[in-house]
Design a protein that fits this description.
- The chain is mainly beta and about 650 residues long.
- Helix content is about 5%, strand content about 40%.
- It has three helices and 46 strands.
- Strands 1, 2, 3, 4, 5, 6, 9, 11, 13, 15, 17 and 18 form a twelve-stranded parallel β-sheet that branches. Strands 24, 25, 26, 28, 30, 32, 34, 36, 38, 42, 44 and 46 form a twelve-stranded mixed β-sheet that branches.
- The longest helix is centred in the N-terminal third of the chain and has 15 residues.
- The chain is globular.
Length: about 650
């Protein structure tokens, strides 16, 4: 992830930044400016309620306790799920979460997965706050019907990692989540007491969270510098003031906020009460009054009798604000007895047999080796992963396929490529045959017979992530292939690894990140990075993307290896030439060719010039190597190493 180059005052100069350990391409300046400008003077925050760094906040009252559920028979959710009860001593809970944090806070590519679940009730107090630090591959979630059913008096924090004493960053703070609870910010001392910190980057969603008693800071300004961050995603949440700080880009959907501190490159809001006004590019806020279509992620709950269910929220269209502030979230519950609760030791044959019998699927935390496709064929089936569940392709398998069926919900899944090349890592709908062998760009008029989709009940992917390399060598022709019509892509990160294990131009090979062949597909929060050809290819009609973030591959060995049909490099976002209708709001593509800095990419975005194709709020950024010649098609100024970290903007195209 690139470094956030920001200033609390947008007119400020951009001094050269120093380079951090292991990540020489990322740069930023202005941590002091954010602290002084945002936390001290307000710097555009409405209201400005943040405390100066080091100041003790006003004492916050302990939130009242919702009624706790009566004891019931607990399901076996595997050895890496911890279920907490409000009757447990705070010290006991603290010791448990501290031990897991100690394991996970630096374990970026490890194999342990954890889910920390809180039954309805109140945890901690002003006198004895509960402090939860969230490390890698860790999920923190409430089990109530509403976020207000679980209250943590304390913090649920993600902090910078200090790789050296003077190199503290959140750039690689991936694969963690917090959801379905309330945080009443209290406890800790000095700077740490000034906010609840969620200093995380990609694949680290905050969903259905209420933050009271203090600010929510997306930047950890309490460590040594450079404090870079590269997020992020928030939905269905209610907060006071949000400190964006060094976050270079961020997407907030269907929420209520009390204020937003500043923008860096690409801050996008849809359906957010209290969002800053549309002002792209100065400041770089892309603001939609409503979200065109959305559906919240399914989540695990427990009732007063101690019975577990999975709640499936209903579809919303042209929506604003949270699903829960003004009453119960619309939707329906499915008892856990209707799920097959899978463990990593279960075979694909066993899982598919249970799916064929009509069961839904709940993955307990772990890494699953998948040697043939897990096949989801039934309409309205729910597949939910706990604790950042990971499916790893074995022998070139496509780990997960979904039939052309309406209403399927896939949530909380990470899919890793294996050492044998897979044709795809996840496939939604029947494959559309390529127009030309060896290319992912399909003919838009391809045969789409036998599709069974429903615009009022779309299939949806929530918090679904892909990795090509990183934990180990991985190879896949593409990560996510969407062939069905009427699909929602609700927070996707497809990542060809730029660091970790098994990384190299000829090692972790992957042509395409996301290929969309279906019509009426909407993406809300699409992050796609480092693929060797087009990162995203959109062949379907009536596609919509709200927020897109991309980095082109760093490691092309030379220009000859990274060009096609007389075009230098490959665009980060490609809309097929035959497409007549497409729209995007808030998209950025970044270049950093560190292996051969002489490389050029002709453009970040490539689209047909036709009245129905419209893109808004576009930018490109140079991260310190290479050149990106245009923002979109042949429009937009180049970004070069003469102005590292300074975006080239195109407000509207088409």
């Amino acid at each position: 992830m690139p470094l956030a180059h920001f200033s609390a005052v947008r007119a400020a100069a951009h001094p050269q930044a120093r380079t951090p350990y292991r990540l020489p391409h990322r740069l930023a300046t202005g941590a002091v400016a954010v602290l002084l400008g945002v936390l001290g003077a307000g710097a555009g925050v409405t209201p400005a309620t943040a405390q100066p760094a080091g100041a003790a906040p006003a004492a916050q009252p302990t939130a009242p306790a919702p009624a706790a559920p009566k004891p019931g028979a607990a399901p076996d959710l595997g050895p890496n799920v911890r279920v907490f009860d409000p009757g447990m001593p705070v010290a006991e809970i603290q010791a448990t979460v501290d031990a897991i944090a100690a394991e996970q806070v630096d374990d970026e590519m490890g194999t342990d997965r954890y889910s920390l679940l809180f039954k309805p009730g109140t945890y901690g107090s002003a006198e004895k706050p509960l402090i939860v630090q969230v490390g890698y591959s860790t999920e923190v979630a409430g089990l109530g019907a509403s976020p207000t059913d679980v209250v943590i008096n304390g913090h649920v924090d993600a902090y910078n990692r200090c790789l050296t004493a003077d190199n503290c960053i959140a750039l690689n703070n991936f694969w963690r989540s917090v959801s379905n609870l309330s945080i009443n910010v209290t406890g800790l001392e000095g700077c740490r007491s000034s906010a609840n910190f969620w200093a995380a980057s990609q694949a680290s969603p905050m969903r259905r969270v209420s933050v009271t008693g203090g600010n929510l800071s997306l930047m950890d300004y309490c460590t040594a510098g450079p404090q870079y961050a590269s997020g992020g995603f928030i939905s269905d949440s209610k907060t006071g003031t949000v400190v964006n700080g060094s976050q270079q880009q961020y997407y907030v959907r269907d929420s209520s906020i009390g204020g937003w501190s500043n923008g860096v490159w690409n801050q996008v809001f849809s359906g957010v009460n209290g969002a800053p006004a549309q002002s792209f590019p100065n400041p770089p806020y892309t603001t939609l009054a409503t979200t065109p279509v959305s559906r919240e992620k399914p989540y695990l709950t427990i009732d007063e009798a101690g019975q577990y269910s999975v709640f499936v929220p209903a579809l919303r269209q042209n929506c604003t604000g949270t699903t829960w502030e003004n009453g119960p979230t619309p939707g329906h519950s499915i008892p856990l007895s209707d799920f097959f609760v899978a463990r990593p030791s279960d075979s694909v044959k066993t899982i598919n047999s249970q799916l064929a019998r009509g069961k839904n699927l709940l993955f307990t935390p772990g890494v699953y080796d998948v040697d043939s496709s897990i096949e989801v064929k039934r309409a309205d089936a729910v597949v939910l992963g706990l604790g950042m569940t990971t499916l790893t392709a074995v022998g070139g398998a496509v780990p997960l396929t979904v039939a052309d069926a309406p209403g399927v919900q896939i949530a909380g899944i990470t899919v890793d490529a294996g050492s044998v090349n897979s044709p795809a890592l996840m496939r939604i709908g029947k494959t559309v045959k390529p127009a030309n062998a060896g290319t992912a760009e399909r003919n838009a008029a391809a045969d789409k017979a036998s599709k069974h989709s429903d615009a009022t009940n779309p299939t949806a992917l929530h918090d679904v992530f892909f990795r090509i390399g990183g934990p180990h060598v991985g190879k896949a022709a593409l990560s996510l292939e969407v062939n069905s019509d009427n699909v929602l892509l609700d927070h996707i990160w497809a990542w060809r690894a730029d660091h970790g294990n098994g990384v190299g131009w000829d090692t972790n090979t992957a042509d395409y990140g996301v290929v969309v062949n279906g019509d009426h597909v909407t993406a809300t929060g699409l992050f796609v990075e480092h693929y060797q050809k087009y990162n995203t290819v959109w062949n379907g009609e009536h596609g919509r993307t709200v927020f897109f973030q991309n980095e082109l591959p760093y490691d092309a060995p030379n220009q000859a290896a990274w060009q096609h049909h007389g075009v230098l490099g490959w665009a980060g976002y490609k809309v097929a030439d035959a497409v007549k209708t497409h729209e995007l709001w808030g998209g950025g593509s970044y270049v950093y060719n560190n292996v051969d800095p002489t490389i050029h990419a002709t453009r970040g975005f490539e689209v047909p010039v036709t009245p129905g194709v419209k893109l808004h709020g576009l930018l490109t950024v140079n991260l310190g190597a290479g050149t990106l010649d245009h923002v979109i098609n042949d429009t937009g100024a180049p970004v070069t190493t003469d102005a590292v970290g300074v975006p080239s903007y195109v407000a509207n195209f088409g």
